[in-house]
Design goal:
Blueprint (H helix, E strand, L loop, with lengths): L10 H11 L8 E8 L2 E8 L5 H14 L6 H7 L6 E3 L2 H8 L3 E6 L5 E5 L28 H11 L5 E8 L5 E8 L5 H12 L9 H8 L11 E3 L2 H9 L3 E5 L5 E4 L11 H4 L2 H30 L7 H11 L6 H21 L2 H21 L5 H15 L4 H21 L1 H17 L1 E2 L2 E2 L12 H4 L25 H5 L7
Antiparallel strand pairs: 1-2, 2-4, 3-5, 4-5, 6-7, 7-9, 8-10, 9-10, 11-12
Helix pairs in contact: 5-8, 10-14, 10-15, 12-13, 12-14, 12-15, 15-16
Length: 496
């Protein structure tokens, strides 16, 4: 912006200049008030809908007009009880702060003006999570207010070891970003890498943290998410204590966590609060559900189309009778039903909560029954698709669940064209791809590749709390030991 005005100047000149810059805006948006105090004119201006009107009247205008001595710019900062006031004569900076909710005071004849941040804070109150259901443990979720989110994190982790770094991303619409990690635990190379990647993001704006993570992921073309996205402060805090790094952005109710492995997306915060045997059983169930969700329908298509000799005779007769009225080959039949299920799932997610639940239950029953009676699908396929859909719902992370849903369709096509060979080709392709994917430079399939047997208890099992004396080595934390294993095992009973 090119300025053609210099201080000192008349209040009328300042008013004309500022309003000329807002000629394309509504006249009601800009507040420019002129007051006379001790024979001096004082101008106060700001944008109406961005300013906290109560604070403007009580904290700024009241002491400004009630003051009994003549005003000077330097005196304003000492008398007016508003924090973060700044004296400046930079007109370009003034317009930048004007659109963020600041209020300005100019005393006629002075060489500078005073800026006060009085932005009106519109915030959603803290509530429970909608996308990550929690039965046992903290229910609180993030909001769109970065200051509120940081406040929650600080209350969960009240330690000076917690580091919260501030960065800014966006040329046209700058947005504040915070990097969160434990100084004594997080790997310095990981911290430096994520800091550098965020600083190198050269875009006009980022919508929120989920958009930012796509700019800095190792492989932006991979279907699999490489950073874990969460809206639970408890989840972020737990992973930060393990040596990972969290990133929060202004105007975002989600945080992302790096580095993350493929198996990180199947862990929940409840694993920490449940008994270790229950948590281990549920975690293994989620991992087994991956295979059911991905391969049950493709295996049905492959076996019924080419390798039907693998099916026991009695079951093959039942399947044949079920498919006798179906005019389509198994691949078309499976794709049709899977597409209907995805339509129901997407419609249920976009509709209001109560209507969406009804749509999912009633729609699934009605359409499934109608498809069988109309001869579009067999009863056996409806059971297979239902089991596959239920298995996909066990994935606690929405991004990973969406990836598995998409992968299922090419797997069905491969099964329908090449049979079990196509299924094996699809499995090999997935494994090769996952072996090449990294998250912040760390292998995505850790601890399977590279093999780290000592980390199996951290990923596939959930040992008792007094057994978890070390952090997972695959993230290379600076301090791998949580506590002394010998002290934890020692029982100190009170002698009576």
């Amino acid at each position: 912006m090119v300025t053609n005005i210099k201080f000192p100047l008349k209040v009328e000149q300042l008013e004309t200049f500022i309003k000329s810059k807002f000629e394309h805006h509504s006249e009601d948006d800009l507040i420019f008030s002129v007051y006379t105090h001790r024979n001096k004119k004082i101008a106060v201006w700001g944008i109406k809908y961005l300013i906290d009107a109560n604070r403007l009247d009580s904290a700024l205008l009241a002491p400004l007009l009630d003051h009994k001595k003549a005003w000077k710019s330097s005196l304003l900062l000492n008398v007016i009880p508003v924090e973060n006031g700044v004296i400046s004569n930079d007109i370009d900076e003034m317009f930048e702060k004007l659109i963020t909710g600041s209020v300005f005071i100019y005393i006629e004849g002075e060489n500078e003006f005073v800026t006060y941040p009085l932005a009106q804070q519109e915030e959603r109150s803290l509530d429970t999570s909608e996308t990550e259901s929690v039965i046992i443990g903290p229910q609180l979720s993030f909001t769109e207010s970065l200051s509120t989110n940081l406040n929650v994190i600080r209350k969960i982790l009240p330690t000076t070891d917690l580091v919260i770094e501030k960065l800014t991303v966006g040329k046209v619409v700058p947005r504040e970003v915070r990097i969160i990690y434990m100084k004594s635990v997080a790997n310095e190379a990981d911290v430096n890498t994520i800091r550098q990647r965020i600083q190198e993001v050269d875009v006009d704006e980022i919508e929120d943290s989920s958009a930012l993570k796509q700019y800095i992921e190792d492989s932006t073309l991979s279907l699999f998410p490489q950073f874990l996205l969460t809206e639970l402060p408890a989840h972020l805090s737990y992973t930060v204590k393990e040596g990972k790094i969290g990133v929060l952005a202004e105007n975002s109710p989600n945080a992302f966590i790096a580095p993350s492995t493929f198996f990180s997306f199947f862990e929940t915060t409840e694993d920490t609060y449940l008994r270790w045997m229950q948590a281990t059983a549920f975690r293994l169930l989620r991992i087994i559900s991956i295979a059911i969700a991905l391969f049950s329908t493709p295996l049905y298509v492959a076996i019924i189309t080419y390798q039907y000799e693998l099916v026991p005779t009695a079951l093959l007769v039942s399947i044949g009778q079920s498919r006798s009225a179906v005019p389509f080959p198994p691949i078309i039949e499976a794709l049709l039903i899977e597409m209907m299920i995805e339509l129901l799932r997407e419609a249920g997610a976009r509709l209001p909560t109560k209507i969406g639940q009804t749509m999912g239950i009633v729609g699934g029953i009605v359409i499934g029954q109608a498809a069988v009676e109309a001869g579009l699908a067999s009863n056996f396929l409806i059971i297979i698709v239902a089991a596959s859909t239920l298995a996909s719902f066990t994935t606690p992370n929405y991004l990973m669940g969406s990836s598995l849903r998409v992968i299922r369709f090419p797997m069905i096509v491969l099964a329908g064209v090449y049979g079990l060979i196509g299924v094996m080709f699809g499995i090999c392709f997935l494994l090769i791809h996952l072996l090449r994917v990294t998250s912040l430079g760390r292998p995505y399939l850790s601890p399977l590749y590279p093999l780290r047997l000592q980390d199996f208890s951290q990923v596939f099992f959930n040992p008792p709390p007094n057994k978890k004396s070390e952090r997972a080595s695959m993230y290379r934390p600076k301090d791998q030991e949580r506590f002394s294993k010998e002290d934890a095992m020692e029982k100190r009973d009170i002698e009576e």
